[in-house]
Structure formats: structure tokens, C-alpha cells
Amino acid sequence: MHIATLDQRPDLVSALWDMPTAWPEFMLHDPISNLYYGLAVQEWPEYILVAEDPDEPGRLVAKAHSVPFMLPEGDELPLDGWDGALRRALQARVAGVKPNLVSAIEIAVRPDRQGTGLSAIMLAAMRDNAARLGFSDLVAPVRPNGAKDPDEPMTSYAYRTRADGLPVDPWLRVHVRAGGVIEKIAPRSMVIPGTCAEWREWTGLPFDTTGPVHVPKALTPVHNDAEHDWAVYVEPNVWIRHRTGA
Question: Which of 65, 185, 186, 219 could make a disulfide contact with 105, Cβ separation 3.0–4.6 Å?
């Protein structure tokens, strides 16, 4: 398998967008996400990694997105996590500010290749790419997708460990095994608003009663206001820091 940056392999742009992923439909409707992914290949191709299927040239088995942003010296990683990293990356690009930190945005493995260790390989490649670009740290607002109880606070779940001391969450465990350190919780890492009709379309659930709605694969309940015809999902993530050695 060959891993390259998108600026090294611009011929794989179409394959990048065509690669299927396991993201639930509602996760594809974050307004900040929709802004970023439309600009990514033009603005940050050197921060996007593509892994070509060795048996099917031109088809991807995995991809990884990251962005550079500016975090003022002494500031903690932002509470708005994933959305915040993207906003700061866009602000730095528009203002011409030199970034000092790289944030992971997505590591996705083709569904038929999940469970084969590709996520750890792509994480290592992302860390190495950040070092190549001159950054001493790679941070990641990690989505602990092993969480099953949306009512359990992330401040509790993120720090649960197995007998061997590693996190119970599989994705957090990949990061910690790779040398990452859990730094803090980002309580409003991704915010996805929509009308009740939009949420019905995204999930197949009725969204006809005001109150919390448990949506499959959501890490917290979606807050639904049927009388005012809106619902919003606020997802917590976990900031993990990796030293790159640069």
C-alpha cells in the first residue's frame, strides 16, 4: 500500500471523494464540515493523505485529513474541538497568519478494510507528515466511537480504562498506543443543527416530541424542540496530543 499526500497525487482527488466511509448520515451535515470539505483540496492538499489500494490502482482504502492552525502561546486547546480547529485553520489562511499546530480532522478506512490495522497506519503517517511539514505537535479532537451510552458524560467515558491501563474505547486506544496523551475534553466539538424534518430524513426517527432523542451512533442525545421546529446535536470529543519529534 502506498500512502501519499494529495498534492503528490492530485490524480486521486476524485477517488478521495468517492471512497465510501462508515460515517452516519447526520454527521455529514455539520455546517463547518460542509465549508471545509469544499475547500480542502485547494487549500490544504499537502495535509491530506491518500492510501491507494495495491490491488486496484486508483481506488483508495483509507484517507486522512488534517489542517494547520494558530494557537496562541499559553492557550489551551479549544473547547469547540473539531469545529474550532477548522475555524481557526480557515481564519489563519484568510489572515495570512503562520500556523503553529496541526490538527487531525478525519481518518477514514473503507468499510470493507476496517479492522485490518489501517487506522493506526494512517495515524502514524499523519504524525510523520506533520513532522515533515515542520510541526512539533499533532493534536486530534478524537471521536470515541465505541461509546454506547449517550447519557454517560464524556468526562467519564474518555478516562475509563481496561485492566492493562489502556482506554476502553477502541479509537482512543489506537491513539494512546501510538504515544498520544489525552489532554482534555472538547465538550462542544461538533454542532449539527437542523429542522425536525431534516433530522427525520437523516435518521429515520420521528422527531415529533420535544426532549432528548437517542440517535444510533450519536455520542450524546439530540435536543429536539418540536414546537419551534429545530433540533441540535452537540458532540463532545477528546483532545489527544502527539509529539512528532520535529
Answer: 65
pLDDT of 136 higher than 90:
yes
Nearest to 86, CA basis, from 101, 105, 71, 100: 105
Q: Are 121 and 87 in contact (CB under 8 A)?
A: no
Please check the confidence at residue 233 and state whether its pLDDT lies above 90. yes
Taking the whole predicted model, whether its pTM rises above 0.85 is answered as yes
Q: Which of 44-48, 54-58, 101-105 comes out lowest in average pLDDT?
A: 54-58
Cell numbers for 98: 503562520
Reading phi first (left if > 0) and then psi (alpha if -120 to 50, else beta), residue 217 is in left
State the Cα angle at 140 between 120 and 6, rounded to 5°. Answer: 65
Q: Name the residue among 143, 114, 148 with its Cα closest to residue 240.
A: 143
d(CA 35, CA 33): 5
Distance CA 118, CA 109 (A): 7
Q: Cβ neighbours of residue 199 under 8 Å, at least 6 residues apart? A: 26, 205, 207, 213, 222, 224, 231
Contacts of 43 (CB under 8 A, 6+ apart): 93
Contact 170, 146 (CB under 8 A): yes
| Contact between 101 and 137 (Cβ < 8 Å) | yes
Q: pLDDT by residue (tens digit) across 110-133? A: 999 999 999 999 999 999 999 999
Q: How many CB atoms lie within 10 A of CB 213?
A: 21
